[in-house]
Amino acid sequence: MLATLWLGQLMLLSPFAYGTDLAGLTAVEWLLRLWTLSVALWIFARLGAWRVTADRDGVAVPRLFTVERLPWDEVGKAVARRDGCVHVGSRITGPFLPAPLARLLRRPDGARAMADHLTIMVRNPELRPTERAGARTRVRPYAVWAPLPLAVLAAAHLLAG
Questions:
Q1: At residue 64, what are phi and psi to the nearest 5 degrees?
Q2: What is the CB-side half-sphere exposure of residue 1 using CA atoms within 13 A?
Q3: Cβ distance 99 to 82 under 8 Å?
Q4: What are phi and psi of 70, to 5 degrees?
Q5: CB 7 within 8 A of CB 48
């Protein structure tokens, strides 16, 4: 949900705004626009990286270009933060809808639910999954999501004209 809203904002406030003469930009303006686009894409990808996969061997936590696998004995305890992120062992994953906003919107607190589920699985090995995660359930690195907003922006600019 947050990733979709961010993508909409990125399209509306694109650093390559419609009607701008790109040929007249200086090197500094190009650098600023590319930097802005890079940060926006990183945020979009980060917003899409809330998924954590638990299987018999441990927990898979997404990173920018890789997926880090934490064995169950390294997970320890999962703790939900107020900003919607979750500490899983020594790693941070998320974000989910921040807890105060979730209460205001009367939505479930996904960060707390995930933290509670993982903590229960750490403390009770008999409740852990018994198989390895399949290809359809494996978590992906954030960077996998970056081409999506680029494609949407490119299509919007081509259609605009």
A1: -65, -55
A2: 7
A3: yes
A4: -105, 120
A5: no
Alpha-carbon span 9 to 2, nearest angstrom: 11
Element (H or E) spanning 22, and its range?
none
DSSP state of 134: P
CB 52 within 8 A of CB 60: yes
pTM value is 0.66
Coil, helix or strand for 150? helix
Tell me the two tokens of residue 99: 């807890």
Q: What letter would DSSP give residue 97?
A: -
Q: End-to-end alpha-carbon separation of the chain, Å?
A: 29
User: At 65, is the pLDDT very low, low, confident or very high (cuts 50, 70, 90)?
Assistant: confident
DSSP lists the bridge partners of residue 70 as: 59
DSSP 66: S
More reliable by pLDDT, 68 or 46: 68
**Strand ranges, E, within the chain:** 53-55, 58-62, 67-71, 78-80, 86-88, 91-93
